Amino acid sequence: MARNKATSINFNYSKIIDMTNLQNCLDTASIYVSTYAKYNNASLYGKWLNLGDYSDYDELLTAMYELHCDEQDPEFMLQDHEGCELFEKLGLISECHLSKDIYDIAYQIDSSGYDTEVFEACLDILGRLDFQSLYEYVNNFYYGEFGSDEDFVQWLYEDDTFNIPNWVVIDWEATARNIMYDYFESNGHYFRS
To answer: Do the Cβ atoms of 67 and 46 come closer than 8 Å?
Structure first.
């Protein structure tokens, strides 16, 4: 996978996005919605809602109100969530919290052309970041997914990143060991440090 040189998140770059292998990151995310009033009255009544079934936060909120229309002003309680590891790491979802920005961020992730695992790998390396910083880092410093450091370094050399003639014989293991000081890897995903 070639490195992407996009510099902003306004989607004004000319990258062609292949969406065939990309799954909407909301399709696997779901929440169990109840209310505090029901919980305080010893009821766990609620329902699992798949975030991918709704086009935006307002549509999801409407479904939540319809689900609990028996209450005049329901105070929603997210009792559980699943399939949301990236959203959880970004602070967009937790027990009792769902960010209004979750749909906008999901759209940006889907439009980026990268799977959510690329963003998760970047967070594993860099730690907690706001989404804007994470998005820019991935777009500027992500190189791709490789089976090993040696495969990655060999790709760098063959891609003319270092302009080494092809007749030079290289000890890939030793070279990878040295060059990895300038790169990060998580779950097979490689980024420039």
So the answer is: yes
Which tokens go with 162? Answer: 């270092």
| Residue 95, number of CB atoms within 10 A of its CB | 12
Distance CA 193, CA 183 (A): 5
Only one residue has tokens 């939540």, namely 64
Strand pairing category for 189-192 and 183-186: antiparallel
Alpha-carbon gap, residue 190 to 21, rounded angstroms: 19
Q: Which helix (H) or strand (E) holds 32?
A: strand 30-35
Distance between CA 69 and CA 136 in Å, rounded? Answer: 41
Q: Spell out the per-residue pLDDT of the chain, length 193, in tens.
A: 444 333 222 322 223 333 333 357 788 899 999 999 999 999 989 999 999 999 999 999 999 999 999 999 999 999 999 987 889 889 999 877 899 999 999 999 988 889 889 999 999 999 888 999 999 999 999 999 999 999 998 888 877 667 777 777 788 899 889 989 999 899 999 898 8
Element (H, E) at 179: helix 172-179
pTM: 0.73
Residue 123, CA distances (Å) to 23, 73, 86, 130, 133 in order: 19, 37, 9, 10, 10
Strands in 183-186's sheet, in edge-to-edge order, are: 142-145, 189-192, 183-186
